[in-house]
Amino acid sequence: MGMIEKIIDWIDERAHIKDIYRTQMVEYKVPKNLTFPYVFGVLALVTFAIQIISGIVLLLYYKPSIADAFDSATYTIMGEIPFGWLFRHIHATGANFFMAIVYLHMFTGIYYNAYKRPRELVWIVGWLIYFVMILTALSGYLLPWGQLSYWGFIVTTEIPGSLGDAPILRDFFKAIAETIVLWMKGGYVVTDVTLGRVFGSHVLIYPLILLALVGIHLYLVRAAGISNPEGIEYDKKKNPDKFVPFHPYMTLKEGAYVMWYLAIFFFFVFFHIGHFLPADNFEPANPLKTPPHIAPEWYLLGFYEVFRSIPSKFWGFVAFNALLIFLLILPLLDWSPLKSARRRPLFFIAFVIFMFSSMVLTILGVMEPTPTNAKLGLTFAALVFGFFLSLPVISFIEYGWYKAKGGEQQ
Ligand code: HEM
Fold first, then answer.
1. What Cα–Cα distance (Å) separates residue 189 from each residue in 157, 192, 314?
2. What is the pTM of this model?
């Protein structure tokens, strides 16, 4: 017996790690027909780890004060610390990839209806992760204290001020709006106090919440079992032929995808960093000079476009928050007994319209706010709402089909 085996045996005798390996890796079974998009959960996990590790390195050298923040990010980290630039590139690229992967992961869940019974909690916890991720991204964006950081933060914190535009009870809503804006900004002007608070949230509070939520998410996925792209819930005992052991089947398959992913990721880190560290942000924040075009990062453009294409600020605010809430309550809106877009033609059509409209809204979000673009924005916003509101109707129709077939899954 080699040295390594001896050490493992020594640990195993005390910690029973081999039992954990056997029950959680080999005896744990997953559907054998999982499609490619099921890999996005694992890729999200990999990217999350990349963010934590690279973030910790940046944290060692970043200085959270208005006087030092820009220089510490731009000169100390990028120029003086060995490989500091690499960790900043990784963290900035990682933030964008993380969002992209999580969107793909969410769309996969929507396509296969993985939010339905018995996975409602997996979905709800996933939604909380998404929400905290948005807060993490917004707070991290302020830290380098460049022009985009500063003005992006100002515009974002002003958005809840739209509540003051309410058609009724205006004074009441105005008071609430002002309180929220003041609270988010940490005062009437952005000071060291604000920056310190945003820094603490970004490096400690949100990551801790995310770690806890991701742990609960993974536990819940295990508890409910991964969905089946066919949309049929097979029993692991009654239909053992429909499942394969997690290890080595999934570990090898997904491990290969992880390698591809890392190759693409580092290609961007080394050769296309300009997309993720824009040149405008290498100019220190200047509260007296507003840059001409301030738009949120791409992952929020859809919501932003819904907000700005609606003529009333109040209703724009309500609308984009409603979209977030619709996402959360998907399991309630879509109560049909059928699962997976593969066996639901009406849902499939609605899903395609939803995806297409979300992409168009994202593109419109960076375009000039012309009247034509506003009309287009309104049309595609209506289609996105249409998707969510059509779900109860589609469910009703499908319930009829389901009953006519005697309540079978097929
Ligand atoms: C840090 C972010 C996240 C990580 C690391 C993560 C990780 C995972 C992993 C590893 C799985 C199992 C494999 C798979 O089905 O892909 C999974 C499943 C799932 N996740 Fe996430 N997830 C994250 C965010 C989200 C978000 C934002 C949502 C939705 C709003 C979500 C909803 C789901 C659902 C519904 C499943 C079950 C899929 C199924 O059974 O088919 N997750 N997640």
1. 11, 10, 24
2. 0.96
